[in-house]
Amino acid sequence: MKRNKENRSLIIKCAVLGFMLLLIVFSKLLFGKGDVVTTSIANIPPCWAHPFGTDNLGRDLLCRSFIGLRLSLLMAFIMQVICLALGVTIGTVVGYAGGVLDKIFVFLQNVILSFPGTVLTLCIMLLLGNGIFSMIVAMTIFGWLSYARLTRSRVLTLREANFIKGEIAIGSSLFRIHLFHIVPNVIRTIIPMFTLMIGHAVLGIAGLSFLGFGVQPPHAEIGLMIQDGMNYIRSNPWMFIFPGLVLAVYSIMFNTVGDALQDKFDPHDSVSASKM
After folding, report:
1. How many angstroms separate the Cα of 270 from the Cα of each of 7, 181, 260, 273, 275?
2. How far is CA 86 from CA 124, 140, 201, in A?
3. Does 53 reside within a domain?
């Protein structure tokens, strides 16, 4: 009964997140063109026609918030796919090989983690310059480390499992062992983390754009919208409140689904069973 209840809860959360993502994809069709400048309706407070109000150029904030978040989510997804591919590959190799290679990875990991991630990202962006490409590169350079650490930890456990030892005993190739046994078990652990990291990446992208290091005008981006709204915090507070709420709701939803997936794909049960 408890397992069925958890499954239903996970399905509901995934459905809600899916619906929220569809709102972003079809935001222009649903809410109109939020990037159209109409000075005659500038600085209108929230109303039936414009639930989030309009900005200083008369652009609808409801649609523009979704458009801005769409760019952030697209960038976050691209970053996390790259980080996942690099992290899983490196983590699998060093975890299974062990020895000197593993010690080198642990040393580099400790060196990188000794510096704040935000500071490293800002330093790289100062070298590369502002913009979308620079942000993707800067956040990807060290973003793969989280996936590599988790993958390495998982592989270190898996390589001692009985079913892996059985494959080695019957002469299975390393390619077969990794493709049919290591990778599928690692992916079960990585999927929840991937979901969580998308939410974190969106916050990071918005934060860098808010500080002026990320996406630059005229692109619509949720962090830039919040930055612009701060200039009107006294006269038009809705210009930063509603974009901030949209960002917060989506980030919380990604974290909620990620936590639910983590409970669903808890690796400890399967590993314990394989060692019995």
Report:
1. 18, 12, 17, 5, 9
2. 19, 10, 16
3. no
Supply the DSSP string of 46-103, one letter for each residue: S-SS-TT-B-TT--BHHHHHHHHHHHHHHHHHHHHHHHHHHHHHHHHHHHHH-HHHHH
| Residue 131: its H or E element | none
pLDDT in tens, 11-40: 888 899 999 888 888 877 777 666 677 788
How far is 155 from 170, CA to CA, in rounded Å?
A: 20
Low-confidence ranges of the chain (pLDDT < 70): 1-3, 32-35, 266-276
**Cβ contacts of residue 248 below 8 Å, gap of 6+?**
none
Residue 83, pLDDT score: 93
Q: Tell me, yes or no, whether 238 lies in a domain.
A: yes
CA torsion angle 186 192 194 199 (round to 10): -170
Backbone phi, psi, residue 218, to 5°: -90, 10
Contact 197, 146 (CB under 8 A): yes
* Residue 212 CB partners (closer than 8 Å, separation 6+): 130, 227
Say what the pLDDT of residue 3 is: 66
- Is residue 118 in some structural domain? yes
Q: Which two tokens stand for residue 246?
A: 């949209």
CA 268/CA 276 separation, integer angstroms? 13
Q: H/E element holding 161?
A: none
| CATH number (domain holding residue 222) | 1.10.3720.10
Q: Tell me the residue range of the domain where 143 lies.
A: 75-274
265 near 192, Cβ under 8 Å?
A: yes
Those residues with Cβ within 8 angstroms of residue 262's Cβ, 6 or more apart along the chain or in another chain: 192, 193, 196
| Structural domains counted in the chain | 1
Task: Return the biggest CA–CA distance within the chain.
Answer: 77
∠ CA 75-26-198, rounded to 5°: 30
* 56: in domain: no
